[in-house]
Design brief:
2 copies of one chain form a homodimer. By secondary structure, chain A is α+β, with helices and mostly antiparallel strands. Helix content of chain A is 30%, strand content 26%. The radius of gyration of chain A is 28 Å and the shape is elongated. Chains A and B meet through strand 1, strand 12 and strand 19 of A and strand 1, strand 12 and strand 19 of B. Strand 1 of chain A pairs antiparallel with strand 19 of chain B.
Chain lengths: 736, 736
């Protein structure tokens, strides 16, 4: 039987409970310079902390498996996914584990393994030219088809060497340093000058690997080039990357999925700098940007700790990822931010670093099993003025939070989606109005080698794959990454100071030429109105020319009720020709009920009811669509959408919607509570920059008024139905 | 704000942890005759068992809510779902709770509530004629449109009265008995003679209600009629129902969803009989059929305790249903069957009966949190010879069991499906090859009042909605319930004695005229072959005339790989015209790869990989279909199917398939293990009644041989590739 196991993540963390504590003799490295010191090792040896004990026991059992096989260092021939590629990745991971394990619990066999691995690589490396599968337009490596893997390899190898060099002979050390470590560092920083000096996470891996190598080998030039760039002028290198890759709020524009990957070399190299160049004060740099980078990443999660799948993202990735374990440990060690401890406790695993032990020991019986996710605005842009993400969360501390994410951050480079002002909604940890994420089955070979699928570009990145407005069936910024990168959306106003009423107003004037898009998301918590919080979604389009306008709401769940007329087409009908429309089959086409100014759509997901109540007019068309058209390989996930269209060519329109969670089907008790929306008679009018929304709940009429003005004026007055209505601050919700 | 709360289940159970134990004064009923005695009440009062304390505290908090509202007894005018209907149901539930609560923790207010409720109903009942919404062909009631609800009402009312009568004045008792309880019993047993004497669960509710009324009022005639039927000859009544509604193995032919509902009046009335007529020895009757009825019901669950959704069933219904809590408590009290305790422990709630306390007290620290589900055959039919269900389970004690259900039980009356010899597969508690269940959104008013949807008859009950073989696109037994009820399938052989190899062979000769259908399901656990257990599915069709033959595999999940060619139709294509085929859209039509004798289909569900490897020939057509065609109201749930068709008119064919769970995608580690099927070169030949299946795993070839003979011969010999192969018992699997 031949089975293939593909490993991608290599940090050592542990979740497995073991039976007994190892007895060890002391022979730990006393001169290690990177992330795990002699005192850290002693802590691992002598700890009575359950998480620490688990970590060492888990390491020991992993190493036991590793040592069952002999060391094989294959000739580099295969591209990603192939044998030699995966084996080299496996090797550095094994080397790293065994090196740490040798310090905690030394055996002759472990040291022999480490030496054999290092001398084997030292013997091979000088013989290698560029990898045979290297590509012309992609930075190549020697051990791998791409240089990125080479940097990651040195990142781990140098840590392994740091832990074991003092147990080697002078001759072994000379060989390893001369034939392997220095050549790798030279390859990464000199031969691959461009990547090393790039403001990009690939550059971060390079500078981290080379810089840490300099620290272990005592090479100040290497260290300086890594921190300040090859020219040592600070224009490139680690600090420049720290300055430019994170926004002022610690947001990483590619989104949390890549943020999670990039955080590791940032945090690890910073820790090494702190240990070796404390004068740099790296953790204080840019007002503690590394702390923000970690806490912002943690906040970009739903109630289950899964990262919001914005931009190209694999769903179901959680903060239990090894990179995040590593990052939270070091961030805690450096900043003593107690808000990190519940996360570390819930992860129930640590990295094998000094920081890991410190974090584990900081957890007490009083540490909560709950991570607080308050509402917050996360600014994008180095100066914090390039749009951002509004995270609006209902103010409860128990499970069952309603979360809305309004995204108007920068494009996010090649992994970005054309989804400015897009909304996603989560409730009780479930995706209610989902972001599709990426079209990719990661690491599943039969799905085009696990790479991004063609449908990622033809569907997932397009505007229509999101809850966003699309004009004339064209994606924002003409679907052009470069063009989109040049422009930013703006925050108009944001007020989350009041639990009852929270609002964010954002705008974009460049996504469609001559058109101002503006979306305001208001989350309302008022138990007099409804038993659950709800969202008012106002989307204004103001254009100099006429357009067809679509507002799309992707949803998961069963359609339970529609307060509009619809028919299901007898023949296969695709929503459009391109820009992702070509992937949507029309399941139903509807129109508002005669003489009704509202339409309503109710669905059931995870036994909970959700309704979207919309202001519609005689012209409105309503569609229910489903992914799967023009999908010859079944690459798209099943996803349905509720789409509200104003088909006539119009210049100005406001989409007015209430998104409302409201009920529960209990399959055990077979009871249904609150299966119907509470809202009726939704209406909207504009008075200049004021939005006036009214709706009824039962017999009561409510009036929501919002100022879209940018100015600082806090007192507002309008006239409504002949009555004067005044309020302070951005908005007001009153019973009439 | 007007919200509607619909209650359907009313037994009192509890899961809510509370803070402190109530202090009570003793004034409990010492003369109660039904399910909760004076000593039981004392146990509830004085228990230090956490589950018991929770139960009483939960009751107290429920009653507190009940007592906040005044008693309202509306004129019966509405049909099911309407106000008066739901209010009367709510009333008996409230009455039952408050009556028990008064005994445990008496207050003036509780007794006043009970008296007001009883005297209110006693004042109204004599004034009532038949309910205005009663239907001509359906047994009607006075308080409700149907008589069934009336029986359920008396079932609870008489228990409430049993607990509180001694706290009433003679005058009150006389009025309640004369104007309410006796008239209800008379209405149910005399006016509704037919239902009372029906061998049907509606009859069971009637006899239970009337019989318990007789016990409380001291009316032996009522008791006798309930136990032995109106004529007291045993031809009808409770014992006749016990004899005919359960198979010899305690299987209820409508399936577990209705079994769960019916078990309550059976077990409750039996307990009352045991308390009042111990000479009947009801729990010993028919070799302890009530014990089998309870344990069989519990075994008909997946790893999460959800009932297999065979026949008309609402999915997600679990054994935590109040009826099952009630039934397991009484079954434990009567039979002291320790296998019930883990279930009761995992439920973490009890019924408010003597049995509830006894069950709670029987749970110890040694009671496991694991309910063992071994493989078993459950015979249908009073004599146990009318087919049945084969439950095949992999032999592991930890989580992650593979379960196969081969169904060839009797039709199951109006709620039955035409799915003889159908298969469903569960793995790790997930539905892998699902049974569709019922087309119904229970209690969701907007879905046709929560009733069965038209698509239940046009799709869900049809053969094609199952993993079954369909000839000529017609359902089994011509889709005629009466015709199907007249015929049974047969068990040919069953051997679950060997963990490595388990097999069931079943046959049906009447589903299609002149055609013998035979399916054998073999579950194989052999870690030398594969890391997970797998299933060999052999389906023989032998007919006197030619047919198109379809074997259908419904599945949930993403399509990951297909080892066959397919195209996706450009235009909307529906699989067929009727018999459920009209609801299936063709997503892809395929054919085997040229010169290949196998086709393979791999899907990913809940991050696990599953493959179906099939013997196919040049003629085979392969379809991927999806529900949703001709579904004007979006009533059907999304469900995909993989269908293997032999399109030419043939008389004999064997469908040969291996169903294999094999791998895992870990989204946190981003690792993939075992993404590919291990099987290749699957082939099959028949030698008389012997099936010979060979397949390769890696370089090894395996031979599986099975005797389909009905005789008792245990030694078999065949010649394969010129070699003589012998085995003992039904089957053998060897490495060649």
């Amino acid at each position: 039987m031949l089975h293939r196991i593909i490993f991608l993540a290599f940090l050592i963390t542990t979740t497995i409970a073991c039976k007994q504590k190892q007895t060890t003799v002391d022979s730990s490295s006393s001169s290690s310079k990177l992330l795990l010191s002699a005192s850290g090792i002693n802590s691992f040896k002598n700890s009575d902390n359950a998480i620490v004990i688990h970590a060492t026991e888990d390491l020991e059992s992993q190493v036991k498996e590793i040592l069952k096989e002999s060391v094989i260092i294959p000739q580099p021939v295969d591209a990603g996914g192939g044998y030699s590629h995966e084996k080299h990745k496996r090797n550095y991971s094994d080397l790293y584990r065994v090196a740490i394990s040798y310090n905690v619990n030394p055996t002759v066999q472990k040291l022999a393994f480490v030496k054999e691995m290092f001398t084997g690589y030292a013997a091979m490396y000088p013989t290698l030219g560029m990898h045979p599968k290297a590509k012309e337009n992609h930075p190549g490596g020697k051990l791998y088809w791409q240089g990125l893997n080479e940097a990651v390899t040195l990142f781990y190898m140098i840590q392994a060497y740091d832990m074991t060099r003092e147990f080697m002979t002078d001759e072994e050390r000379t060989k390893i340093e001369t034939d392997l470590l220095r050549p790798m560092a030279t390859f990464l920083s000199v031969d691959s000058y461009d990547v090393f000096n790039k403001i990009h996470n690939h550059g971060t891996w390079s500078v981290a690997a080379v810089g840490m190598t300099g620290m272990v080998l005592g090479d100040d030039d290497m260290i300086d080039r890594s921190i300040y760039g090859s020219n040592k002028d600070g224009e490139t290198g680690f600090i420049a990357q720290l300055d430019h890759l994170f926004s002022s709020d610690g947001f990483y524009s590619e989104g949390p999925y890549y943020h999670r990957y990039a955080i590791l070399p940032f945090i690890a190299f910073a820790e090494a700098i702190e240990n070796n160049r404390p004068d740099v004060k790296i953790f204080e740099h840019r007002d503690g940007i590394l702390r923000k980078a970690v806490t912002t990443l943690l906040q970009l999660t739903d109630e289950q700790g899964r990262f919001y799948p914005i931009n190209d993202a694999i769903k179901s990735k959680t903060w239990e990822s090894d990179e995040v374990v590593f990052a939270t440990n070091i961030a805690y060690k450096q900043y003593k931010d107690a808000s990190l401890l519940p996360v570390i406790k819930m992860m129930n695993k640590i990295s094998l670093t000094d920081a890991g032990v410190i974090a584990a020991n900081a957890i007490t019986d009083n540490t909560e099993d709950f991570y607080e996710r308050p509402s917050m605005f996360i600014a994008d842009g180095v100066e914090g003025n390039s749009g951002g993400l509004s995270l609006m969360r209902s103010p409860q501390k128990t499970a069952g939070q309603l979360q809305a994410v309004l995204k108007f951050s920068t494009q996010g480079m090649g992994h970005g989606h054309f989804d400015r002002l897009s909304l996603s909604v989560y409730d009780h940890g479930n995706e209610i109005i989902p972001d599709y994420g990426a079209a990719r089955f990661l690491n599943i070979e039969t799905k085009r080698g696990g790479r991004y699928l063609p449908e990622n570009k033809t569907y997932a990145q397009h505007t229509i794959a999101h809850s966003a407005v699309v004009l004339d069936e064209k994606s924002q910024y003409k679907g052009n990454v470069k063009y989109s990168e040049e422009h930013v959306s703006q925050l108009v106003k944001n007020d989350m100071s009041n639990d009852r009423l929270q609002v964010t107003v954002a705008t974009d004037t460049m996504a469609y030429k001559g058109t101002k898009l503006s979306r305001s998301i208001t989350m309302i918590n008022d138990s007099d109105i409804s038993n659950r919080p709800f969202i008012i979604d106002l989307y204004h389009v103001d254009s100099s020319t006429g357009h067809q306008m679509d507002l799309n709401y992707p949803f998961f769940g069963d359609i339970i009720d529609t307060q509009f007329d619809y028919t299901r087409p007898a023949n296969k009908t695709v929503l459009g020709k391109d820009n992702g429309y070509n992937h949507l089959e029309v399941l139903a086409k509807g129109s508002p009920l005669a003489n009704h100014t509202n339409s309503q759509f109710t669905f059931l997901q995870a036994q909970r009811f959700y309704s979207i109540t919309s202001v519609t007019n005689f012209d409105t068309e309503l569609y229910i669509t489903q992914t799967g058209a023009n999908d010859p390989e079944f690459n798209l996930n099943l996803q349905r959408q509720y789409l509200i269209r104003q088909p006539s060519s119009i210049k100005n329109h406001t989409f007015v919607n209430i998104i409302e969670p409201h009920g529960f089907f209990n399959p055990i008790q077979e009871t249904v509570t609150f299966p119907k929306s509470v809202f009726s008679d939704l209406s909207h009018e504009k008075q200049g920059d004021y939005d006036i929304v009214s709706f009824k709940v039962g017999e009561e009429t409510y009036l929501y008024t919002l100022s879209q003005k940018r100015d600082q004026q806090t007192n507002h007055t309008i006239t409504y139905n002949g009555k004067s209505i005044s309020w302070d601050g951005p908005h007001q919700l009153i019973k009439l």
